[in-house]
């Protein structure tokens, strides 16, 4: 499991063997069964996880009890409620395993130690944080400015492997549309593909 993570660290952060060994010593391998929660509302997200196998979603529940998917995470992606992690405040989110999954787990203390002692790791995380913030802003803009068909097409094109692994009602929630709207859009897209 760590070898998968080490490859990512070398590709994204050019970490050295000695830096990888420091990270290996403090990392924890964790398995989460499908449909189990990694985090529940009201608890502090005192971890950051790197997904080595499987998939997760970060979701919030509305006052009506409806689930709103905020984020997905598959292999090579990070997962946490970063707002709760940074503030130390209880989370208003859940993190659910969508498949039997595995991740490399870092506690808050361990994470802070790695950031403070490994400059290459710190730089890599800063770059990833900036890209994540940009993606988040782009998603907000897309959800308030683009028609549902465009959001759907962009999702399918950007995340083709994710699209095939995630239940459609969760994708609809992520896109900010109803399941019925998603079904209609998928049907129209299929018709376009057969006529072209």
Automatic annotation (TrEMBL):
Signal peptide: none annotated. PROSITE patterns: CNMP_BINDING_3 (PS50042). Pfam families: cNMP_binding (PF00027). It comes from the Bacteria. Residues 15-115 form the Cyclic nucleotide-binding domain. SUPFAM superfamilies: cAMP-binding domain-like. This is CRP-like cAMP-binding protein. It comes from Chitinophaga ginsengisoli. The lineage of its organism: Bacteria, Pseudomonadati, Bacteroidota, Chitinophagia, Chitinophagales.
């Amino acid at each position: 499991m760590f070898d998968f993570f080490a490859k990512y660290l070398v590709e994204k952060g050019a970490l050295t063997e000695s830096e990888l060994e420091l990270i290996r010593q403090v990392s924890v391998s964790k398995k989460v069964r499908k449909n189990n929660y990694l985090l529940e509302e009201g608890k502090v997200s005192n971890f950051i996880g790197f997904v080595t196998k499987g998939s997760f979603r970060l979701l919030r529940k509305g006052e009506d009890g409806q689930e709103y998917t905020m984020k997905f995470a598959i292999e090579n992606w990070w997962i946490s409620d970063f707002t709760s992690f940074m503030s130390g405040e209880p989370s208003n989110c859940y993190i659910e395993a969508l498949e039997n999954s595995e991740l490399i787990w870092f506690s808050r203390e361990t994470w802070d130690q790695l950031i403070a002692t490994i400059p290459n790791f710190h730089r890599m995380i800063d770059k990833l944080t900036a890209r994540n913030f940009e993606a988040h802003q782009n998603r907000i803009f897309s959800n308030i400015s683009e028609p549902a068909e465009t959001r759907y097409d962009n999702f399918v094109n950007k995340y083709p492997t994710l699209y095939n692994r995630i239940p459609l009602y969760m994708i609809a929630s992520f896109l900010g549309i109803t399941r019925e709207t998603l079904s209609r859009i998928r049907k129209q897209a299929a018709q376009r593909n057969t006529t072209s």
